[in-house]
Specification:
162 residues, 7 strands, 3-stranded antiparallel sheet, 4-stranded antiparallel sheet, alpha+beta
């Protein structure tokens, strides 16, 4: 029964994310919509619960439990910070001339369509990698709002280029 509940919950969450990605799309723009904020809030909530347990003495006086709770707090806090940074900083634009993307991890990158050699989808990381002739790589997460329209647009532009 537990497996079924987990599967339904996971399916519901990913269905909401997929719906949000399609619903909030704006032509020519790439960004993270509100679902990533909710993920950050959930991570921060879990970190807060663990911190509460640690500070109120709910954790037994065993070193292993202190280490485990500390690791939980650190990991969920880092996850929450990453979600909030992605939401605030990640954005991209595209038009007939080219594409640009800014992220908190790799900074801002841009490339003209004529400079793009190939596009590969990485199924493991769920992102599209655009390889430019100058060796630059631009990675577009499949969780970005507007990604479906962007990839269709990119394929159309690149087919016209050939």
């Amino acid at each position: 029964m537990e497996f079924i509940i987990k599967a339904l919950l996971t399916g519901t969450v990913f269905a909401y994310i997929r719906y949000s990605i399609k619903r909030d799309a704006i032509k020519g723009k790439l960004f993270y919509s509100n679902w990533i904020v909710w993920l950050g809030v959930a991570s921060l909530t879990l970190a807060s619960i663990a911190l509460y347990a640690l500070l109120t003495g709910k954790v037994k006086d065993e070193v292993g439990q202190y280490i485990a709770v500390s690791i939980i707090i650190i990991c969920f806090t880092i996850g929450a910070i990453a979600c909030f940074l992605e939401y605030k900083i990640t954005f991209g634009n595209y038009n007939k001339e080219g594409v640009s993307l800014c992220t908190p991890w790799s900074g801002c990158k841009q490339c003209k369509w004529s400079e793009i050699d190939k596009i590969i989808y990485n199924d493991y990381w769920h992102w599209f990698v655009f390889y430019c002739k100058d060796g630059k790589k631009i990675r577009f997460s499949s969780y970005l709002t507007g990604i479906d329209e962007f990839i269709s647009f990119a394929n159309k532009i690149l087919k016209e280029k050939i």
